[in-house]
What we know:
- It is a single chain.
- It contains two helices and no strands.
- It has one domain.
- The longest helix is centred in the middle third of the chain and has 41 residues.
- By secondary structure, it is mainly α.
Amino acid sequence: xxxxxxxxxxxxxxxxxxxxxxxxxxxxxxxxxxxxxxxxxxxxxxxxxxxxxxxxxxxxxxxxx
Length: 65
């Protein structure tokens, strides 16, 4: 009869921690990309309109593109 192998508790905990760290890093990168895209849109909007755009202006500018 074949013996079933099971992961020890410390291995499970370590894998869970690594997965949590990976998810956190991925989410942080997604948020950073979104902020950078918003900043680029804000700069483009400022150049086109000639003044500092509000959040509403930037949103309308991005929808109009």
